[in-house]
Here is the input.
Amino acid sequence: MSIVLKNIRRTFGTFQALRGINLEIADHQLVALLGPSGSGKTTLLRIIGGLDFPDPGNGTVSIHSEDVTEKPAADRKAGFVFQHYALFNHLSVFENVAFGLEVRPRPTRPSKEAIRDRVLELLRLVQLDGLEQRLPSELSGGQRQRVALARALAIDPKVLLLDEPFGALDAKVRKDLRRWLRSFHQEIGVTTVFVTHDQQEALELADVVVVMNQGQIEQTGSPQEVYDRPATPFVYEFLGDVNKVRKPGRPDLFYVRPHEVRILFAGDSSAEFHAKIEHLFAAGPSARLSLRLTDSRDTLDADMTRAQLEEMGLSEGDEVGLQLALTSKT
Amino acid sequence: MSSKRPRSILPGFGLSLGFTVAYLGVIVIFPLIMVFFNASGLGWSGFWQTLATPRVLSACRLSFGLALLAGLLNGIFGLMIAWVLTRYRFPGRRFLDASVDLPFAMPTAVAGIALTALYAPNGWLGSLAKPYGIKIAFAPAGILIALVFIGLPFVVRTLQPVLEDFEIAQEEAAASLGATRWQTFRRVVFPQIVPALITGTTLAFARAVGEYGSVVFIAGNMPGKTEILPLLIITKLEQFDYPGATALAAMMLLISFALLLLINFLQRKSLGKNRA
Here is the structure.
């Protein structure tokens, strides 16, 4: 196991940021801590990195089977990449990346040439070769993020921790960098934990998704597991779109994802529900329908392919029948 | 005509520049030119005769030497005070923070009298130093204390906002990369606050050069020993030696101006390294 967290609690004043977190992260994995703001995911990441600590006597952190609970960040060899990069503004790209090597005590500090080779190699790795003399202020957001990554990797970290790595970037760069990070991780193989509030980012990128809410872990699993078999209503609602439906005469709520709604002709005898198409949105490969159920007056979103839509010849205002694969979660 | 000038989205460049030049001219530059104009009545030889006396030269050494020293001391201890006030939360912090401004608010003569009472051979602190043969008031040490006193707020108040805005994540980044606290301060924080530190130290120095009120009480004013330049100027004025007084003033201005240019140059250099 690369990282083992046991029963971690952290309180800020009266606010319980973490309420007993247990988590094991295997070697070489790319793990997403996913949750809304205030769920404690960043606090957890900072505790792994030694930038914050559990309440005294409440939890242990181990990295590579070594208990580091009491160790400060400087002794953990955990590479940390900050949301807003936290590059040293007065140092060049080269000096930023070399920093972790140059602050080592003399006996373990590599020679000037060795540092130089390592820094240039890292800058090649993050595709920033040729920019080593620039200052951070002369770089774009995506470039800064990669400098921060190279800087963290320079110390040969045991684990790599990324706090909202793409949070401050625009959509296009975000997507490119996300894809790049995925293949980059495959290349270097360092156990990596990243924090995000973007469910799509977590599902697309991670081997394991840890869904957090209100200082607790709701579910841990592969992207497919957490998406297809959500363990709690929170996970169901947080991961992807979901409809909440009541069955006539029953008080409990049911959950169904838009792509799990089957649209039938109104007269179809296998229809369980009937609804009216209130709005139809058909840009792109699939169409989204806003439906209102005839019985309960609940609204419901449904996805279908454009081909299907055209075949059935549906338009706004039409009555349709529905088949729902309902899962009870309450 | 005006359409040939590169267009700026901010209007009023001509007006604001004109105002700036006129204002600085009337308030700062014009009075200073008058100093040189008045002094020029002496001619070069008269000018040199006034200045090249042992009394003037020793006052000159004393004033600039102690002002530089006071500026440096304020730079070091002002940085420490600003650091403590911005980084730590402790009871009485706001009181301490407010007390930094006191040297600004107090009439300088009051400060001078208070310092003299404290450091005179029969004062609270002066009497403690006396058995060791150390004389504080009525000696250069006393002048230094007065100059440090009045210059301190400049350093603290220029550093405080810079330290407050400093990105804590940069220090955390340094720590996660294995740097010790001292390495983090020396390699990450300090280089980025140097420009503000130089500004504050320069202001403290400039103020100390011209300081009169708080120094005259504690200095003892012995010609050639504890007599500062501003006092010498006043003495000449009291003897109705206006050309002599302005000659001294012109010399002070020239030396101060040269030193400020030098400091500015150093600051430009340190800023050049952190173009960020």
Residues 171-188 of chain A form the longest helix (18 residues). Residues 78 and 158 of chain A are 6 Å apart (CA to CA). The mean pLDDT of chain A is 90. Chain A touches chain B at residues 49-51, 72-80, 82, 84, 86-90, 99-100, 103-104, 135-137, 148, 151-152, 154-155 (CB under 8 Å).
